[in-house]
Amino acid sequence: PEPAAVETAIKEAEDKCASGTSGECAAAWDNVEEISAAISHKKVADAANSDPLEQFCDDNPDADECRVYDD
Amino acid sequence: MQTLNANRVRATPAGLQARSRARVCRVQAAKDGKTVVIGLAADSGCGKSTFMRRMTSIFGGSAKPPAGGNPDSNTLISDMTTVICLDDYHCLDRKGRAEKGVTALAPEAQNFDLMYEQVKAMKEGKAADKPIYNHVTGALDAPEKIESPNILVIEGLHPFYDERVRDLLDFKVYLDISDEIKFAWKIQRDMAERGHSLDSIKKSIEARKPDFDAYIDPQKKHADMIIQVLPTQLVPDDEGKILRVRLIQKEGKKLFDPVYLFDEGSTISWIPCGRKLTCSFPGIKFYYGPDTWYGEDVSVLEMDGQFDKLEELIYVESHLSNTSAKFYGEITQQMLKNSSFPGSNNGTGLLQTIIGLKVREVYERITEKEVVPVS
């Protein structure tokens, strides 16, 4: 999800809690949590794939700078 | 980058292997129909994914989403383990929950019949066409086919809620994070995000709390092992930076033996800091002793504080017994291997690693097969 999705979700939750039922209010804040968790998981995954050499070698295992021999 | 290059220089020409292959292939066991099922329960943002990475790391190989499938799949597959996220068994999507006014924590939002059928099928060696809950769009996507693995891990909010699913599980773990620490962790996770503020984080936790207390938290009485994360008692700490972490282990189970410190069954308080272990302020304190948990006998192993040098963990490890390690130093080696993961310098990483070794032991006792340790 784009970072703006959290902003929208928070605004929605605040509206729902001002006007809707308590169930709708809780569901809206739960939605904020779900989107925040998805963004944070994506950041962790991106950080794990951030090495440019690793990225290159995933696509080109035969290149000189990527070859690994087992013995 | 330097270590990678060093690896490559060391290599000698013999047979060129695919890079990923060269790094894995350390586990002996092959699938023979007996699937061991592990359940992990915790709330969102409580470190389930870090725990999973520590646990799968003990079996070697890297866990990856199913190749060529839905890019938003929640499943992680490695040689030995398949981890499925129970959010995939939501029966209401994001829109449906908003309309009905229920959270993802509510039992009405889960399809427990399908969860039971598919976990049972995979335990019996059959493949399952499991739905995918897309966390990006909030919709239920087309199913993906999951083959029956050696070790099936189901993680999420409700692994022990339904009695039928609970009875399928061979080992149950619950991550119990106190309200103070949950708040501190969510601030760390979300504060930098646009739109979030202290107020929005607090409101989100408060709004979800009634459902959490009603449906998620009561599951912890069923767990075989519970990791409790509490604020430190060593110093006043409002930020949740220093943790007191407790491993609560049920006694008298067939498939595992609880870890103990020095002398089994005694009550011990131990401060290891001194000549052999360097601790800066506020130091480290261990506790071990018997207790009861919802009327059942348990042993508690507790660590308060944090390590300065991870290598010195070997000193602590040498005083623990029944860790299910296969060689002296295995816990320390596993912690060093994953030193970049959150919690590596405190009790969360240490006790999660110990649970990972227990999972391996449970697998070995059920299948009567040996898993070769991974270095």
TrEMBL record, chain B:
Keyword Zinc among UniProt keywords: no
Any one biological process term the GO annotation gives: reductive pentose-phosphate cycle
Pfam family, one: PRK
Catalysed reactions, as listed in the record: D-ribulose 5-phosphate + ATP = D-ribulose 1,5-bisphosphate + ADP + H(+)
NCBIfam families the UniProt entry points to: PRK07429.1
Phosphoribulokinase/uridine kinase domain sequence ranges: 37-235
Lineage, highest ranks first: Eukaryota, Viridiplantae, Chlorophyta, core chlorophytes, Chlorophyceae
Pathway recorded for this protein: Carbohydrate biosynthesis; Calvin cycle
Keywords of the record: ATP-binding, Calvin cycle, Chloroplast, Disulfide bond, Kinase, Nucleotide-binding, Photosynthesis, Plastid, Transferase, Transit peptide
Major localization listed first in the record, in broad terms: plastid
GO MF: ATP binding; phosphoribulokinase activity; protein homodimerization activity
Enzyme nomenclature, EC number: 2.7.1.19
Localisation: Plastid, Chloroplast
Top-level EC class: transferase
Listed name of the protein: Phosphoribulokinase, chloroplastic
